[in-house]
Design brief:
alpha/beta
């Protein structure tokens, strides 16, 4: 499949029963301002663009939400338990972005999309969810150009806040190029 726009990415996700099942499980929690983000979308696009017939394994499935009224980490663990009860084969990770600024030592996030916009790479700053009308919604704070052109670069947030060392460490640790060999990595 050729991926030219957000509609193509949405169609790719809609045609993937595994991804749709995960999205429906996350939606069932009825979390405020929820998204499944990062590698869930990025890896699907990269796998497709590399012609892979098998899914690249996910170290985790990142479900995020934004709830200023309950900042307890225990609540996140309860949501993970509920998701594991629905599908124990998925490595669920649930995080409330209303409290993650403390862990990340940055200014508070205003929403889940604001948090996604502060992810290290533009190709990872992606989120997907099912809305109340059962439509797939994609959020792309920096667009999809980089992810569909197999380019990895720091987000403007990383550059503005001089966090390139964090970005570079992450690129080294993730070693995405060993899996997706067509990637082009940019450092500024």
């Amino acid at each position: 499949m050729v991926i030219r726009n957000e509609s193509d990415i949405i169609r790719l996700i809609e045609q993937d029963y595994w991804m749709m099942d995960i999205l429906h499980h996350a939606k069932s929690l009825d979390l405020p301002d929820w998204w499944i983000c990062a590698g869930f979308v990025r890896s699907k696009v990269w796998d497709e663009l590399h012609g892979f017939t098998c899914r690249t394994p996910h170290p985790d499935i990142d479900v995020i939400y934004y709830d200023q009224h309950d900042l307890k980490e225990e609540t996140e663990k309860e949501y993970e338990d509920r998701l594991r009860a629905l599908n124990p084969t998925i490595p669920w990770s649930v995080k409330n972005e209303a409290r993650m600024h403390v862990r990340n030592n940055v200014s508070p996030y205003e929403s889940s999309i604001d948090a996604i916009s502060k992810f290290p790479e533009t190709a990872t700053a992606l989120g997907v969810k099912i809305d109340s009308n059962n439509r797939i919604i994609l959020t792309t704070p920096y667009g999809i150009r980089d992810v569909i052109h197999l380019e990895v670069r720091p987000t403007p947030y990383i550059l503005k806040n001089q966090l390139t060392t964090l970005y570079e460490e992450r690129i080294r640790k993730k070693d995405w190029k060993s899996t997706w060999t067509k990637l082009k990595i940019f450092y500024s």
